[in-house]
Design goal:
By secondary structure, the protein is an alpha+beta fold. The chain has helices at 9-23, 62-80, 129-142, 184-192, 210-222; strands at 152-162, 166-167, 171-180, 196-204, 224-227, 252-258, 266-274, 289-298, 320-321, 324-334, 353-358. Helix 1 packs parallel to helix 2 and helix 2 runs parallel beside helix 3 (129-142). The protein starts with 8 loop residues before the first helix and ends in a 10-residue tail after the last strand.
Length: 368
Amino acid sequence: MPVNDKILYTDYNTLRNAVDQMLGQGSATFGYGQLVQSSAVSGATGTGPVLGGGTGANRIRTDEYTKLRSDIINVFRHIYGSDPTPADPIIGQLIRYVVAVSAVTSEYDVSEYNIAEYNSSSIAGSSDPYTQFSVIITDIQNNRFTCATSQSVVESKGSASRSTAWGGGLATIGSRLRISWPSADQARYFFNSGGEIRVTSSRVGGSATSQNTAWTNLLNGAATRTFSAQLPNSAFGLTNATNWYNLTNVYQTWYSSTDSSPYGANQYRIQARSLDGTVANNVSGTSAGLDLLVLFQDNYIDPDTSYPPGAAVNVPPDDSVDGVLTITVTCKRASGVLVPEPGTGSFTILTPTVAITGYNLGVSGNID
């Protein structure tokens, strides 16, 4: 496209459709499920240098660019917690398409524009709306799973505690966290918009034994573990259940930590699968939730220090774990207000329903 040619309506649609894919329903790893104000436009010829705005029209209206500008701001604000400053087209100004001075890898490389090539009717340099919109859209596409702290809320989703002693060698207890939404799309919107499921386990009180201290330190060291669309691993695929889009219908470990000697046989694990194990491959986000399995495996056996050997074997309380063991679940959920204000509405993401069951699992860790 030559310098100062009019922008094709198809170019406008390219920008608009990219934003719609992120802010609107989208599919798979794209889509927040929010209100999209801009609309695709059609041109008079379909291929000529027509600005669009409807059948037979010859220009894109200012209000169409204004709505696109608002959609871009709403995604950008969600990600960064502040607003970008894309150009605000003025009636009568032509929104120009420009080329670089020298060969570049992309016509949108702002740093290499020859501003002198603009005429007086253009919005010069990096203020050009088409240029700005393109650069900003590329950025928000690359960072679409991010949610600014100011654009989110953290909610308590419940806890479960056990005060009965356990352990003593080859003992595994745990809990199932069933995390669900009304539909797969609502679950996908939650994770695509930066939503997180956070799990914290702790042990307090009980006997003053080294075994108890070891479990307290192990769980404190694990701290809060976060599961999201990109945590704990940003890669997508079926190699491991290390994020939302890697879930299968089989429990897979996404966090594991073992204690230090002499309690190195003690292990804390968190596993994940699709909700109720009904989706074998969640790469497209078709599960309406997930199951997390939180496991505490105590394989420590107290050594026989009696004389003669065998006089006292594995004598409690050193083999057992007592006190109060607790699992706490919270979630980070996207929130915020959409522009223009007032009247456009809020950035709305459904919070999940969390059911916590279990704590008396078999050695295999299988609660089904």
